[in-house]
Input
Amino acid sequence: MKLPRAAADRLTMKLKGPAFLITIDTEGDDLWSRPHNITTRNSEWLPRFQNTCEAYGLVPTYLVNYEMACCPVFQQFGREVVRRGTAEIGMHLHAWNSPPLVPLTADDFGCAPYLIEYPLEVMREKLEFMTRLLRSTFEAEITSHRAGRWGFNGDYARALLECGYRVDCSVAPNVSWSGHPGGTGGGPDFRDAPREPYFLDFNNVCSRGNSGLLEVPVTVVPEAPSRFDWLRRMCPAGSLAGRALNRLAPRVTWVQPNGRNLARMLRLLDGVVERGESYAEFTLHSSELMPGGSPAFRTAGSIDALNRDLNALFAAAARNFRGATLSAFASEFRIAEVAA
Output
């Protein structure tokens, strides 16, 4: 008899223990500033991060976009970690600079459109191009994916499956991107999405289905109610006041360092273990590992502090979790599904 989804999830954990999934959006420098000339200096900082992961027995998944796939420094690094089996290369796509280039707005680099805003034919061509580029560059199967700017829907999911992808991690439960404009509108609303892995429904990527594409949502956990919640509800989505409130009293916690949330992340990991969940998913941008590569980490001192937090977080993860790439975790999940 087939077990419910939550029971199969628990079975995976019982068999091998919860996984700590490290997902890195591997992209150009400080894309928050919307540069027209994208640089990739952050590729030089990735070996330090990789060494930290390996020191704790963790295996990152680098979700790579176009400029990084074309960067000679990252190409050498990526081929080496794939050869050694110490990391996975997956795909991450920023629609505005990933070939074929088809203008959607007067300034696509400034607007950063979501891929789901493009015609379906263009979406498929971009996905097929990036898949071929990554496979040929890194001489590896490319089966994991995260959408650029979290812009994801059923058409996108169907195209991924047709391109050979087996696992996606674009869904951020408890989060809405509707107040974050792209080329023609806002992003998706994932507030009702499950927090555990599920085979998604092409008609609604926040619902379970039988598509064959496994969704492994990024770990985002609601915080306890705050006295500021009433004021937050009065702020328009994506407003400056709303962002300031989220810094002061976050509504949710991600496993994503920002320089001031180590204690929250450690509590989150404890909660994952206590609830018997099968994984926690860490996320970061490659450019955040370099001074000046992101708004959060501008100085060498802030990078040193980030690395201290990473060591503390990874040490805590190593005590209760095991390292796994996205694709390895997805394969284990499918085996548990069959066993259940």
